[in-house]
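Subgroup meeting minutes
Present: P.N., E.W., G.H.
Scribe: E.W.

1. P.N. recapped why we're keeping a running log of single-chain structure predictions: easier to compare across weeks, and new members can see raw inputs and outputs side by side.
2. G.H. added today's entry (452 aa).
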Amino acid sequence: MKKQEETIVALATPAGVGAISVIRLSGPDSFAVTDKIFSGRKKIAACKSHTLHYGKITDSEGITVDDVVVSVYRSPHSYTGEDSAEISCHGSPLIVQKIISLLLEAGARQAEPGEFTKRAYLNGRMDLSQAEAVVSVIQSSGEASLRGARNQIDGFISSKVNDLRERLLNLSSLVELELDFAEEDLEFVPEDILTGKIDNVVKELDILISSFRYGKVLRDGVNVALVGMPNVGKSSLLNFFLKEYRAIVSEIPGTTRDIIREDVVIDGIMYRLFDTAGIRKTSDVIESEGVIRSRETISSADLVLFISDVVQQFNSTLYQEVTSLTDPSNVIRVMNKTDLAGGETLPDADIYISVKNGTGINHLFDYMRNKVSGQTTYTEKTAIITSARHLDCLKRARQHLITAKETVRAGLTGEFISVDIRNSEAALAEIVGAISTDDILNNIFLNFCIGK
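Output recorded in log:
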C-alpha cells in the first residue's frame, strides 16, 4: 500500500497536561478506524462534513477511556484534502496515549513529521511555499514575523512567482515560435525588446532577493549586542528596553561579568539583547572570561550598539576593536548620558540618548529598525522572502536570465536563449513545488512537528 493510501494519526496539540488534547486522523479509512473505538448516537462514517459528535472512546473490553468530541471533515474539504477526523479528549498524556494506541490497533499508522501538511501539498490544497509557511506561523515570535508568515501562507509569494513564471514561459514561447519560421527569416521579438523584457524580470527578482534580509529578521529575530566601556550605561539601557531591573546597575566598573540575554519585541520584531561585560584589560579572572565572551557575542551579532557616554566620551581604540570583529555597517554608535552634557558640544555619534530620562530612545528604536530592514518600507501586501531555499531558487533564476541576455547579445540562435529562459522558469517553479524532488520534499517536511 502506498503511503498516501494509508490512514495516519498523531497528536495535533502540544504534548503534556492541558484542558483538552486533539488527536488528528487523515486518510481513506479515517472514519472507519474512528468508528472501531468510538460510541456515539451514530457512526462517524455516516456523519456530514464539518459536524461535531459527542461520544465515548472504549477499549476492546468495552471499558470507557474518555468522553470525547469528534470533528468530521470530508474530502476534499479538509486540511489535507482527504477524509479527516479530529478527536478532542481530556488533556491527560495517559488518555492521549491510550486513544492513539487504540487507533493504531484499529488500522491507522503513526504520522511522520509534517505528513499532514505534506499531504495537503500533494493533494493540491496549498503549494510548496505555502506549506513551508505553516512552520513559520507556528514559530512566530512577534507581530511582524506572524504577518510575514501569513503573507506567505496567503499566497503573496506564490502569486508573484507564478506571475514571473508566466512571463518567462510566454517569452520563451515567442523565441521558440521564431525558430519554427527560421527559413522565412521572421523576427517575432526584436533583440532590444527581448533584452528589455529580460531586464524587467531581473529587476523584480532583485527586489525579491533584496527582501530576504528583512525576511530573515521577521523569521529569526535580531541579535543585538550592547557593547562599550564599563559604566557607560549598557545594563541601564537593557533595563530600559525591558521596563524592569534585569541587570545590576552600579558605579563600580566590571559589574557585568557574564553575558545577560533577554528577548523583547519592539514594533513587532523580536530583538535578542545581549548585555556584554565592559571590554577592558583586567586582572580579574572572571571578568576576563566575560570580556572574551563579549568579543564572541559581537562577532555573531546582527546589530551592535556601541555605547559611549558624555563623561568617558568616545573610545576610538575600543571602537576599532569592535569593528574588527563584525561588519562596521552593523554598528550603531550610541552616546548616552546626554542629560549630563549641559551646554557642551556632544561628541560625534549616530544616536544621542539619556537612559535616565528616556531622551532619544524612540529614535534609537527607529534607527535599529531601519538598519535591519534596509530602510525599505514593506507592507502586508508585499512579497517578502524568508526562506534560504527560496533565495537560492531566485538567485539561480536570475543567473539564468543574465546568461540568456549575454546569449542574445552574442548573436547565438534562439535554441540557446530559450534554454536559459526555461531554466530560469524551472528554478522559480521549485519555489511553489511545480518542480520538486523527493529529497527536497523530505528535507522541508522533516522540519515540521509530528501532528502538523
